[in-house]
From TrEMBL:
Membrane-topology annotation of the record: Multi-pass membrane protein
Membrane spanning stretches: 48-69, 81-100, 126-148, 160-186, 214-237, 258-276, 296-319
Lineage: Eukaryota, Metazoa, Chordata, Craniata, Vertebrata
Family: Belongs to the G-protein coupled receptor 1 family.
Cited Pfam families: 7tm_1
Organism this protein belongs to: Acipenser oxyrinchus oxyrinchus
Record bears the keyword Glycoprotein: yes
Protein name: Neuropeptides B/W receptor type 2-like
PANTHER family according to UniProt: NEUROPEPTIDES B_W RECEPTOR TYPE 2, NEUROPEPTIDES RECEPTOR
Gene name per UniProt: NPBWR2
Assigned keywords, A-Z: Cell membrane, Disulfide bond, G-protein coupled receptor, Glycoprotein, Membrane, Neuropeptide, Receptor, Transducer, Transmembrane, Transmembrane helix
Length: 336
């Protein structure tokens, strides 16, 4: 993700989503000016926020992975998608300390290979969450439709969910591949010759920058969110207008709870990610000046998108009785 991981706003391509920059190459004087926008304590606060997100995200998502893999009753189709969602969030929180280190050091000390890995995982975080939620929404729609029509779903199996999850990962890897190619370590020409891990586009940089933003917006937001909205609209329409027979007067309690949980997880994801993608529209359609307000808003937007990686485990704990019981049982068994 075009994350904010250094106070040098001008040394990272689109470091904050509302700011426009070409190929990360700007005057060092602009960097110095930008660094004076905020009190130094502000730059200490950001690593603290990122560290909390990292600690909570790692703990929560690791617990989700552990429970789903260890508890036999948790091996369901929906939980397979939740497992992959937790793996994607865990993967992102695992590399967040490197972003924190770069923020504190004000330069990139980790080499080009790790630069490509980190920027790739940052972008996996943009696409993987929404794609797995799209798959979960498709699954919910099919379950509701089958229940309404009193049909069985013989092909909806745990094994099939594994195959679909693998296909999602392959798709996300292919989507992120261009960012992996363009990621590299760039040396900023100033008194310190600092290195920065950036997306370095060929000329013309302006075209490639806009193309990458549109690419991310369409594939990471417009297409999946439109699909989800259509699915839920159709789901509500069918539930409202189709006359259910005596065996399917309504979704049973368990299916209702799962559907509600998926909907709430989706809503939280959209709440966290919509400002990020809206800022892309702003970056593409306006010429915002780098002001303290713009920088502050962009930091907030990035932190909000990061926070999504640690919120889902709490939603599962509050909304899913089976997850809560399985986790409690694991804790009870552990001392023994």
């Amino acid at each position: 993700m075009e994350n904010i991981s250094s106070p040098d706003y001008s040394n990272k391509s689109c470091d904050h989503p509302m700011n426009y920059c070409e190929n990360n190459r700007t005057d060092a004087n602009e960097t110095a000016t930008t660094e004076q926008y905020f009190h130094p304590d502000f730059y200490v606060l950001l690593p603290v926020i990122y560290s909390v997100i990292c600690a909570v995200g790692l703990t929560g998502n690791t617990a989700v992975i552990y429970v789903i893999l260890k508890a036999p009753k948790m091996k369901t189709v929906t939980n397979m998608f939740i497992l992959n969602l937790a793996i994607a969030d865990d993967l992102f929180t695992l590399v967040l300390p490197i972003n924190i280190a770069e923020h504190l050091l004000h330069y990139w000390p980790f080499g080009e290979v790790l630069c490509k890995v980190i920027l790739s995982i940052d972008h996996y975080n943009i696409f993987s969450s929404i794609y797995f939620l799209t798959v979960m929404s498709i699954d919910r729609y099919l379950v509701v439709l089958a229940t309404v029509q009193s049909k069985t779903m013989p092909h909806r199996t745990y094994r099939a969910a594994k195959i679909v999850s693998l296909c999602v990962w392959i798709l996300v890897i292919l989507i992120v591949l261009p960012f992996t190619v363009f990621a590299r370590v760039f040396t900023i020409t100033d008194d310190l010759d600092r290195k920065s891990c950036v997306l370095s586009f060929p000329s013309s940089e302006s075209f490639w920058f806009k193309a990458s933003r549109i690419y991310t917006l369409i594939l990471g937001f417009v297409i999946p969110v439109s699909t989800i909205c259509i699915l839920y609209t159709m789901m509500l329409y069918k539930l409202r207008n189709m006359r259910l027979n005596s065996n399917a007067k309504a979704l049973d309690k368990a299916k209702k709870k799962v559907t509600i949980m998926v909907f709430i997880v989706l809503a939280v994801c959209l709440f966290c990610w919509t400002p990020f993608h809206l800022s892309t529209v702003v970056a593409l359609t306006t010429d915002l000046q780098t002001t303290p307000l713009v920088i502050g808003i962009s930091y907030f937007i990035t932190s909000l998108s990061y926070a999504n990686s640690c919120l889902n485990p709490f939603l599962y704990a509050f909304l899913d009785d089976s997850f809560r019981k399985a986790f409690k049982k694991m804790l009870e068994c552990r001392p023994a």
